[in-house]
Design a protein that fits this description.
The structure is a single chain. This protein is α+β, with helices and mostly antiparallel strands. The chain has 3 domains: about 70 residues, Uridine Diphospho-n-acetylenolpyruvylglucosamine Reductase, domain 2; about 110 residues, Uridine Diphospho-n-acetylenolpyruvylglucosamine Reductase, domain 3; about 210 residues, Vanillyl-alcohol Oxidase, Chain A, domain 3 (3-Layer(aba) Sandwich), CATH 3.40.462. It has 11 helices and 17 strands. An 8-stranded antiparallel β-sheet has the order 13-10-12-11-15-16-14-17. A 5-stranded antiparallel β-sheet has the order 5-6-9-7-8. A 4-stranded mixed β-sheet has the order 1-2-4-3. Helix 7 crosses helix 8 and helix 9 packs antiparallel against helix 10. The radius of gyration is 21 Å and the shape is globular. InterPro entries: FAD-bd_PCMH, FAD-bd_PCMH-like_sf, FAD-bd_PCMH_sub1, FAD-bd_PCMH_sub2, FAD-linked_Oxidoreductase, Oxid_FAD_bind_N.
Length: about 425
């Protein structure tokens, strides 16, 4: 009898009804092309899929939402975890247990009922486990640290069964799972993650027109030099399409937005942001909002699309980095590039209580670039050109902002 004969979820091969649906996700470029898809519904199903791959010497991959798909699977076994989305909050311990297919929106909502917040990112549709396995830089990252730092335990499916991994039981495996992904031939079935006592934040997005973006980048470097860690911020710059669904003040324009999230008071946050607003003209406002609405600060698209991207952690945000970023991926680029700059430091820079695998903790900034896949090699060429230009200030990439072909090149090195 095969290991997958007793799986409760669907087991599909190419040509079966529903096979292609299991492969779909937020990332439409470079889809997985497995020989077998197992739509798991329980930890036992995951163990069966892992055992089947091991018994037959097949490669293995896991997909939840398909946001962060890195290296597409060619052949082998794909575990689709979207049916495993259980969430259980322990408000007294400030811990949430999430199953393998849970998305951040579910955790944010469940934690909010108890006045708590998870270390979630800017896109509520992202899968919790994949995000956390890669480190995880969240909305309040400078205060809460890496999401992986807050992992209490991991349930890991292996060919022989479920292994409950903690700092005490398996220190080296626990370290790897917090920032470096899963060991080969295994898959996570659940995680326990620490929550924080955060109910409301003060924040918003401040928009800066194209002609002021160079000045914004210079001002941002100075402004972030000594901010308290309760304020986390980032910049996203891109050309917005001239389409009716785009807000009028952004439509058809190249705009940079400074995204701000703070647990400080309204008065303190406004005081801290005032020097930046004085340095460059901005539109938009900061306001108090529930943490459950924090993703509105970023307003990332929720429609699936094909994209590729890469990143690097920076030892400093040198003026030459800003100049190269705008020259290569700015408004004059031949394809649309979404340029990102995240201010790190604070809790992100501190060693965790228990060692984990997050690299480059001392990096003060993360530079990223993302483009739609257009059937040419232009996006990848521009991304490589940018990474080459900033190499003198680069410490190396972080896993969660590499997508498609860009991730495949990193894995091949």
């Amino acid at each position: 009898m095969s290991a997958i004969d007793n799986v409760e979820g669907p087991v599909l091969r190419p040509g079966d009804d529903g096979f292609d649906d299991e492969l779909s996700g937020y990332q439409l470029a470079h889809p997985h092309r497995p020989d077998l898809v197992v739509g798991v519904t329980s930890a036992a199903d995951v163990v069966a899929a892992v055992r089947y791959a091991a018994d037959h010497g097949l490669p293995l991959a896991v997909q939840t939402s398909g946001h962060g798909r890195e290296v597409p699977l060619a052949g082998g076994v794909l575990i689709s975890t979207r049916r495993m989305d259980g969430v259980r909050v322990d408000p007294a311990a400030r811990v949430v247990r999430v199953e393998a297919g849970t998305r951040w929106a579910q955790v944010v909502a469940a934690a909010a009922e108890h006045g708590l917040a998870p270390p979630s990112g800017s896109a509520p549709g992202v899968g919790v486990v994949g995000y956390t396995l890669g480190g995880g830089i969240g909305v309040l990252a400078r205060e809460l640290g890496w999401a992986s730092d807050r992992v209490r335990s991991v349930e890991l499916a292996m060919p022989v069964g479920i292994r409950h991994v903690t700092a005490g039981s398996d220190p080296e495996v626990f370290r790897t799972l917090r920032g470096a992904g899963t060991p080969p031939g295994t898959a996570v079935t659940a995680m326990e993650i620490e929550l924080a006592p955060v109910e409301r934040i003060h924040g918003g997005a401040l928009s800066v027109a194209q002609e002021h973006v160079p000045a914004l980048l210079a001002a941002y470097r100075d402004w972030t030099a000594d901010l308290p860690e309760f304020l986390t911020s980032s910049i996203g710059a891109l050309p917005y399409p001239d389409l009716p669904m785009v807000p009028a003040h952004l439509r058809g324009r190249y705009v940079a937005q400074v995204r701000i999230a703070s647990t400080g008071s309204a008065a303190e946050t406004q005081r801290l942001v005032a020097p930046l607003r004085a340095a460059v003209p901005t539109t938009g406002a900061l306001a108090e909002l529930p943490y459950a609405q924090a993703a509105t600060i970023f307003a990332e698209p929720d429609q699936p699309h094909p994209y590729t991207g890469t990143n690097t952690m920076l030892r400093e945000f040198d003026p030459a980095v800003a100049a190269a970023a705008l020259e290569i991926t700015g408004p004059g680029a031949p394809v649309m590039c979404v340029l990102g700059l995240r201010h790190l430091g604070g809790a992100l820079a501190r060693p965790p209580a228990v060692p984990d695998a997050v690299a480059h903790r001392d990096a003060p900034y993360l530079l990223s670039v993302l483009s739609l896949v257009d059937g040419t090699d232009v996006p990848g060429r521009l991304h490589r050109e940018l990474m080459d230009a900033v190499a003198p200030w680069s410490l190396g990439p972080t896993p969660n902002f590499r997508f498609g072909e860009e991730a495949a090149r990193e894995w091949a090195r």
